Amino acid sequence: MAPKTHDNQPVQTSLFGDEVVLGKDSSEDPAAQAVPQTPAQRAAELNDTLARAAYQYYALDAPQMTDAEFDRLLQELIHLEDEHPELRSASSYTQRVGGYVGEQFEPVRHAQRMYSMDDAMDLAELDAWLERTEEALAAVTSDAVAYTCELKIDGLGVALTYEDGQFVRAATRGDGTTGELVTSNVLTIGDVPRMLAPAGMGHIANGGFGQSVEVRGEVYMPRQSFVRLNEANDAAGRAPFANPRNAAAGSLRQKDSTVTATRDLATFVYAVADEAPLQVSSQAEFLDWLRDCGFAVNDHAARCTSAAEVHAFCERALAMRDELNYDIDGVVVKVDSFAQQNMLGFTARAPRWAIAFKFPPEEKRTVLRDIRIQVGRTGVLTPVAEFDPVSVAGSTIARATLHNLDEIRRKDVRVGDTIVVHKAGDVIPEVVGHVPELRPADSVPFDMPELCPSCGSPVVHEEGEVAYRCISIACPAQAVERLIHWGSRNAMDIDGLGDEIVRRMVEQGVLSDVADFYDRLTMEQLAGVSTGRQNKAGEDIVVGKVVAKKIMAQVDASRERGLGRVLFGIGIRHVGANVGQLLAQHFGSLEQLLLASEEDIAMVDGIGPKIAASVVEFFHTPQNVAVLERLRAAGVKLSEDRVVADDAPQPLAGLTFVLTGTLEKFTRKAAGDALKALGAKVTGSVSKKTSYVVAGASAGSKLAKAEQLGVPVLDEDQLEQILSTGELPA
Questions:
Q1: Residue 14: inside a domain
Q2: How confident is the model at residue 2 (pLDDT cuts 50, 70, 90)?
Q3: Residue 232 shares a structural domain with residue 306
Q4: For 679-696, what is the mean pLDDT?
Q5: Is there a domain that residue 602 lies in?
Q6: Given 4, 24, 152, 688, which residue is catalytic?
Q7: Looking at the structure, do residues 350 and 376 belong to the same domain, yes or no?
Q8: Is 669 a catalytic residue?
Q9: How many Cβ atoms sit within 10 Å of the Cβ of residue 679?
Q10: Residue 488 lies in a domain
Q11: % of the chain exceeding 70 in pLDDT
Q12: Alpha helices (H) in 55-164, listed in sequence order
């Protein structure tokens, strides 16, 4: 069915019938279309993306992907594996319980596994689950099916263990099987009972004595506490938390429980590891038991006996969302009867008897006042929407990235428009689209600038790419990252030149481009750079003469690193350390490279047309050539000593290796260099042309892809044997 339209703009109907104009349909924009991939390639990409996003969410408490986008990608992977069962493996994210076990806490094994929850993204998916559930139960029992609906609290999962009614342990969910011991931190939360109340003890076998009970729930931060915490962070110059969920997770996982005690956390308890010791038969009865024990139980729960009642609960929950003192992101619907839950059982990652109905992101209207351009550390120009401040999902927002020009055109947003904004996944501010009927008559489409707003250099837009870039190495907006890269180990290897020192030198006007290291920076200037810290007397701590002398000696030594290091360190797009050495070895000097045409460069073995175009474009920028001339004048070596090939044996010639996971005896670079020395080719992706995959600990999608393609997999011991003998394992 074609989507409804409004003034030629597509209209999205929300879960409860509200219409939201989104802007142009991405299917009409060829630039927005995905590059065709095989199912195996897409599955591997999805697994990589989901694993990375989960680590940022669970381990770092700093999500870089919205909940909605994560859920969408996970559903895509589930459907892909349903269509292609051969892609489903034990390492797939669809078979995992989301979570992470850090090393800063003692690990704790849960009494029973703590599962994830399958999601229903709209009412149609919820109804499909209800229908499947009732059909499955009808095949094994004649009893009617009822459901308990509860608010889905946006916090951090926790397991609380009681022995003989006494609180003894608390653990995070972790990876579902093992969590992190956070007992001392949970003891600072006022609503967690230290001893179960007698009314609850009486409903445990043997009066609770001799029994161990593990209950599960959510630790959350009330909204007013979140506001106070961020106000305190702002006053102290600390970064604010993105939302209450991140604040709660970061607070509970503090090594110092006195910090947790200041964070005003709270809990809602709603589950049990094993209901067998309890004299209750349903979720509704269990919630009453929790209240009798003294636990904090959410009051907004209801037993429903039909799909219509479940729908009505979801509507009420969405309507009350803004009125609550805590964040929710949906409704959890559970089969009420414990006996029926046991009949349905679990999948690899979630119970079949429960589902999470996810709310759409909260949306507000505001006016787009300007689209400003930010220049990132790699020179990419990013348009940012600036709009009238509006409160969304518990915090006030006034800016949101528009990503690129294609995205602006797809959404067709213009300065002066009334726009729809939300915090996707209640985390990241996002412009959804505009309201056509409120567009000013004099509005004009946005276009990217021709000159960099930071340095005035021409902006480059390569055909087939969405990004617009400034490629001037003298651009102030890129200075810090370019200077840090220049001093890195594989570039000019300036030992002792830490990232923070570079940032301070840029802030204090000591450095602006890489040539400044050699023709401007003095030891006295470096010694006087403030570190940003103060001593007990309140005086600035500076780098000092001792450290400055060591760094300046390293700077001086770096003049002799050679052209290959310079080409990598200068930051030419697509030119890595290996490509820099290939160019330096082939042309021998910067003069010869500058005389080479794009076709000449593309003829070099290992250099393709894309790299060649990037190199020529870089040298056609006058600001870049000017910096290189300053390097030459300062005595930096811009030539390369040619390496004459020797007769060293190449027993691995013609073979391609991929390294994945964590190696204990080697770094990946060291292992790769050793394989190359024996004639092998080392690449970063697995294909049918791959000869061997070397898999260390925590190997992910590359290992899974190797198994799918039938590529031989080696462990670290076998790798060591190859490197020591030059012979492949039998």
A1: no
A2: very low
A3: yes
A4: 87
A5: yes
A6: 152
A7: no
A8: no
A9: 15
A10: yes
A11: 89
A12: 67-83, 123-138
